[in-house]
TrEMBL record:
GO CC annotations, alphabetized: plasma membrane
Name of the protein in its database record: MFS transporter
Main location: membrane
Major facilitator superfamily (MFS) profile domain residues: 12-410
Keyword Transmembrane: yes
Length: 426
């Protein structure tokens, strides 16, 4: 508890935490309400809900070569602030496009807003790395995991109530306000120049094609020659697949199999059950991570979560589905806290933006491909049960892959760190 109190005494961390809290809350409400809107308005076309998720994922492929370079070369604080403010403006535009009932235009605005939002996370994570010590990274990851579980617990419930009370426009207006609050909080932070501009000052004019490509390539070279980091990032491709599939699978299994008449209520209950499980798991796993190697936490978190997600395809009643979902919720924090505590430790502060600039497109590529697959083949060719089996199996395979390789590269890294002359080459 003392560790949690101490980290919140860092005012920059507190403001960054609150900014993430409000922005994430708004995004969850906006995305969830938009899915309900599409399923209600176009109930005979589940492909629209999948397409909406694609509009959140595909923009990464349009800006992936820029986001990391911008985060490392430009003022990280300003990048995060402008990203929030522009997204707030585009949320207002989205309300008017929904009024027009032109679905193509709605998807276009969603695409643009998501593209701008992709610049936020690399800048945010790079600043976080600069305002905390290495010993505080795992604590921060544990706090973020607990907050995520609270969102899972109340996010869907709040989204349903806002959607019922204010409709889709009210939900997006709420989303817009949270972007504004997030931007104001980050703008009020007092961050050292070394944190905001670790590679020195640059202007937009400096971001010419040659420089962007050189920096983007240097990020690839850094990852490629750093076997431990490369091994970790290879797993992120599968994580993108899992995130893409799970963004629509719970809604589909409720609406088209388990509870077609009251799927919104059942999803709300599932959000509560899953959120309580993740919250409990966050507390338990935060204590376990102190006694385990971070690599061990990541490996077993993936294997156990994968097993429970696969079992989610078996139930024929909502009760058993909730039980399996709760099992997955309990184990997910083990992997998330492990990754959140480990990545900032092993990545050079000057390279964090470019590393994130490679992770995000890799995840979103697999995220988008998975959603495209679901849009094409569900429900005519692939059943919802098979989707759950495939997602769970993929996580188990990544856990086994990590079990084979991570300990080997982790030991090599520890040996190099004991020899200062060799550490430069890591």
């Amino acid at each position: 508890m003392k560790e949690f109190i101490r980290i919140f005494q860092n005012r920059n961390f507190l403001k960054l935490f609150l900014a993430n809290f409000t922005s994430t809350l708004g995004s969850i409400i906006g995305v969830t309400a938009f899915m309900f809107y599409l399923l209600d308005t176009y109930s005979g076309k589940p492909v629209y809900a999948t397409m909406a998720e694609l509009m959140y994922a595909l923009p990464t492929m349009a800006v992936f070569f820029l986001v990391g370079v911008v985060a490392d070369r430009m003022d990280r604080q300003k990048v995060a602030v402008y990203s929030d403010y522009i997204c707030a403006f585009l949320s207002l535009v989205l309300i008017f496009t929904i009024e027009s009932q032109m679905i193509v235009l709605v998807f276009a605005v969603l695409f643009l807003r998501s593209a701008i939002g992709k610049f936020f996370f690399p800048a945010d994570q790079a600043m976080l790395q600069g305002i905390l010590s290495k010993d505080e990274y795992a604590i921060s990851a544990g706090i973020n995991q607990m907050v995520s579980s609270v969102f899972m617990l109340f996010g869907t419930m709040i989204a349903v109530f806002i959607y019922w009370a204010g409709g889709i426009k009210g939900a997006i207006a709420f989303d817009m306000v949270t972007f504004l609050v997030s931007g104001l909080l980050i703008q009020s932070m007092k961050v050292n120049k070394e944190v905001r501009l670790p590679n020195g000052p640059h202007t937009v004019r400096d971001l010419h094609l040659k420089m962007v490509w050189k920096d983007f390539a240097s990020g690839f070279s850094y990852i490629w020659n750093y076997k431990l980091l490369l091994t970790l990032i290879m797993g992120f491709f599968v994580f993108g697949m899992v995130n893409g599939a799970l963004s629509v699978m719970p809604a589909f299994i409720m609406k088209y199999k388990l509870a077609p008449d009251n799927y919104e209520k059942m999803l709300m209950i599932m959000g509560v059950v899953f959120g309580i499980a993740v919250l409990a798991g966050s507390v338990i796993c935060s204590m376990l991570v102190k006694k385990l190697k971070l690599s061990t936490a990541i490996i077993w978190g993936l294997i156990i979560t994968g097993i429970f997600i696969g079992l989610c395809g078996l139930p024929k009643t909502t009760f058993y589905f909730y039980v399996m979902a709760a099992g997955a919720g309990l184990s997910i924090p083990l992997t998330n806290i492990g990754l959140g505590g480990w990545m900032p430790k092993i990545v050079d502060k000057k390279m964090m933006g470019r590393v994130q600039g490679w992770i995000s497109p890799l995840q979103m590529l697999s995220h988008s491909l998975t959603l495209g697959f679901i849009a094409l083949f569900y429900p005519k060719i692939v059943s919802i049960n098979v989707l759950f089996y495939a997602v769970g199996g993929a996580l188990v395979l990544v856990g086994i892959f990590y079990m084979i390789l991570l300990p080997r590269f982790e030991e090599r890294k520890e040996v190099k760190e004991e020899k200062p002359a060799a550490a430069v080459g890591v």
